[in-house]
Amino acid sequence: MAMRERLQEALKDAMRAKAADRLSTLRLINAAIKDRDIANRGEGGDGMVSDGDILAIMGKMVKQRQESARAYEEGGRLELAEKELAEIGVIEEFLPRQLDAAEVEAAVTAAIAEAGATSIRDMGRVMAVLKGKYTGQMDFGAVGPKVKDLLG
Description:
- By secondary structure, the chain is mostly helical.
- The protein folds into two domains: 90 residues, Hypothetical Protein Yqey, Chain: A, domain1, CATH 1.10.1510; 51 residues, Arc Repressor Mutant, subunit A (Orthogonal Bundle), CATH 1.10.10.
- Helix 1 packs antiparallel against helix 2.
- The longest helix has 24 residues.
- The termini are far apart.
């Protein structure tokens, strides 16, 4: 089942169950996807983002909520931090399993070999290989320095 269909089914289920918080988060996900669809149309695309793009959107949403939760906790607003963490839980239901440190290391090593990378100048090709295969499964911000270390 395509990602959009899974999200629509979850939205309908949340409406039936009257799960207000879950419904709110699912609507936020749909709104972000529709915004990207509109932006894609403006750039001459067909207006429909791929499942890979949807995974990237949701990964970004998780990161934003993690930062917000951290800020709320530091500010002593625990109820708001809990709300952000609950939204992360809903979003992560649709994301593939995150790779652990050993799997990330193996993926980076394999991507370097696949791209034929020999120096730091090849980092873009390595990251492109990783993004093509592991979108939504790893934090590319954290992977970048690992790729640099291995190529540097």
